[in-house]
Amino acid sequence: MTKPLRSRWQAALLPYGLIAPMLLLVGVLVLYPMTRGLLVSLYGGRDLVPKPEDFVGLANYGALLRSPELANALEVTILYTAGTVGLALLIGMVCALLFQVNFPGRGLARAILTVPWGTPLVASALIWYWMYDPQYGLVNYVLRTTGITTANVSLLLSPQWALPAVVLVDVWRIFPFGAVVLLTALTAVDRTLYDSAQVDGAGPIATFRYVTLPDIRPTLAILTLLFTIWSLKRFDTIWIMTQGGPSDATNVLAVSIYREAFRNFRIGNAAAIAMIGITISTAVTLGYFVLERRRELPTT
Amino acid sequence: MAVAFAVLPIYWMLVTAVQRGTDLYVWPPRLLPNLGEVGVFVRLFSTQLIRQWLLNSLLVGCGTALLAVVLSLFAAYSLSRFRYRGRALFGFLLLLTQMLPGTVLVVPLFIFFRETHLLNTRMALVLADTAIVAPITVWILKAFFDTIPEEIEEAALMDGCSRLGVLRRITIPLSAPALVAAFAIGFFEAWGEFAFALTFVSDQSLWVASVGLASWIGYLTTPVEIMMSGAVVFTVPSVLFFLILQRQLVSGLAAGAIR
């Protein structure tokens, strides 16, 4: 069966033609701006389109690597990410384990868990901003009735409370996602393994450690990756609640890029920080894949 | 405990929205509401701007969803049905967008939109949001197309139907649920998006609701019950969508981020 040459050509080009519009969009709106960003990071000055005489080579990067601001931003980013990912995984895990038990209202409780995750970031920021209110806020009320503090605290204006405060908002938003995903993984664990563990006299902790954990490890790894990427990206809630302050206590990389560009108008510097941010995100993702490959476990 | 942690802020938002200011600015906070002002939503909508902001969000959301679905439909079909040179690379390029922090793109995109005179237009937001959400919608549609048996399509091809005809007459009708899901995902990505909307649009009447609501934090004059009722109106559609599509979202997000 030989088709005419023209239609064979058409058939060969069809898959490219179908994907071309999407590639065009991603190319124009992601890859091209990224390249521009890389170039801009080599210029000083404050112009959006840098002048040739402002070319400074790698000077922006050199200055950044020596600057205490970047060191602080990196430290805050690591604390923010570690805190968010760790707490969200922990609470999500506990939640998922509890949801394995059948209790009245389980379906409703599960549905409620979806609510924070579905709440838009801006709305979350507004809610928590009001809850953190120094004068009338619910959080201060809880802190005082539990005896953690004796007087009301301006949480978002205090250098030691601001970071935990913004971490808590993100934990609140993402832990339900972790719970739902982990619950799916838990239900897939082979029941007979639990029975044999019981026969062997393993307690609940040993059972979790040696039966459950190995089985859900790939899911946990993926969740950790997802949460890490999300936390590294997080901008909205922090910008709305603290703008990176007080005294840079919540100035994560994403926020410092924005501040450099649209508050301090140091475009080249902002672009350079952005490149450092991209490098970190890429490194995290590559690290995940290398680790997974090494374990030679199938990732689902 | 965890459920309480999840639900308390939501409860507080709802309760705050429907109380009078005099019952809100009190210490200790009232844990049980004094339902003084359910009419707050009337007051909220009587301010001209919020209506405009919500309308802008709706427009940008629909534009994004439509563009994302149409482009992803073809891209996903290409990735799902054909084996060709460059296929893996294209898939990887799409994935790359997913990993990037949004603010990384803000500066170069700002420059780009300024040059193309798209700053201060809702179109800029539609384009930028589509680029961000496209990888997820592509992977969701591809995963769905993969489950449609190729035999059905081959039968139609034998009958003289062209590839595009197959796509139009068989694949698209069969994938209706996935297309609806992709549309909703595109819509709510744009609905909640903040960084682009904050930067690319400066005209107050062109703001989307996310930027408008966030701007209230700066003005101490906005009463908190108005702020919270705005948050309620902004949140409810999004939460409903997440409740309905929970399962697809979990697998879609996981798939988009991993493959």
What does this structure look like?
The complex is a heterodimer of chains A (300) and B (259). Chain A has twelve helices and no strands. Chain A has helices at 5-40, 59-66, 68-100, 106-118, 121-131, 138-145, 162-187, 191-199, 204-233, 236-241, 253-262, 267-295. In chain A, helix 3 packs parallel to helix 7 (162-187), helix 4 (106-118) packs across helix 7 and helix 11 packs antiparallel against helix 12. The longest helix of chain A has 36 residues, at 5-40. Chain A is globular. Chain A starts with a helix and ends in a 5-residue tail after the last helix. In chain B, 78% of the residues lie in helices and 0% in strands. Chain B has helices spanning 2-17, 21-24, 40-46, 48-81, 87-99, 102-115, 122-147, 150-158, 163-174, 176-192, 195-200, 209-218, 224-258. In chain B, helix 3 (40-46) crosses helix 13. The radius of gyration of chain B is 22 Å and the shape is elongated. The chains are: A mainly alpha (300), B mainly alpha (259).
Percentage of residues in strands of chain B: under 5%
Regions of chain A with pLDDT < 50 over 5+ consecutive residues?
Answer: none
Give me the Rg of chain B, rounded. 22 Å
Give the biggest sheet of chain B: none
Class inferred from helices and paired strands of chain A: mainly alpha
Please report the total strand number of chain A as a whole number: 0
| Whole-angstrom Rg of chain A | 25 Å
Described by strand count, sense and barrel closure, the largest sheet of chain A is: none
Got a strand count of chain B?
A: 0
Overall body shape of chain A: globular
